[in-house]
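Tutorial sheet, problem 5. The two components below are modelled jointly, 270 residues in total.
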Amino acid sequence: MMNVKVGQEIPELVKHPTTRQLVQYAGAQGDFYEIHYDQAYAKSVGLPGVILHGLLKAAFLGQLVTDWLGDRGTLKTFEVSYRGIDQPDHPYRCRGRVTKVDGEEVELEVWGEDEGGKRTTVGMATVRLGG
Amino acid sequence: MTTTAWVIDKVKSRIGVDGPEVTAPVEAGHLKRFAEAIGDPNPRWTKEAPPTFLVALAAASLHLNDAEEFGHSWLNGGNRFEYFEPVLIGDRVTAKGRVVDVYDKAGSSGSLLFIVFETDYVNQRGERVARLRGTMIRR
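Model answer (structure tokens):
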């Protein structure tokens, strides 16, 4: 079994989303809500400009967890709560930390930070190590 | 902009009512486009769906046109995935969604309407592969 300890930070993942990526994601997910690619529309509903899809940020955090886990186990639950908006052309830093180890069950706290270190997405993942 | 109680009541009347079932195949090309869009080069995603792919296969939220009479825009509040079986290329997955809760709250910039939904994803063998719970917010 791999050496997993409570408090351990997992390797971070820094993403560099662009408006182009938001359009690509809109197409791949089939979510064409205009706040993710139409600047004028986004501003008309009170946003500073186009913003990242919450589920794109979730996908980034999913990658953080699956990169760390590799083939050493299975993802059982994954949850995210969106606390703030994020705009393209700003780095998005994904981080995580082991919060609980119970036999083969491991719980992780995960979060995404904006440039200022503000946690705009917070979440949790549970994995089962081994088969 | 309408924030009257009757809109909330109309949306609340949907609690517990199943939305339409959607069945879709897990296609190699779609999976590739999705992995490219999220920027995840893990070779594992050439065979298997990454953690959030199911939302691309079938809508994560139910199309609640009634709710759009409340406020002016949507926000995603959060998502919770529970995984039971892997989702692989070639699978046919059926999504069955329902609204499980609706409530309104006063926010700092006006009132908000919260819609909590749950979607079960079942594969071609009838195995439940995942459950998604999410909160969509109208403001």
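Marking note: The two ends of chain B are 10 Å apart (CA to CA). Full credit if you identified this.
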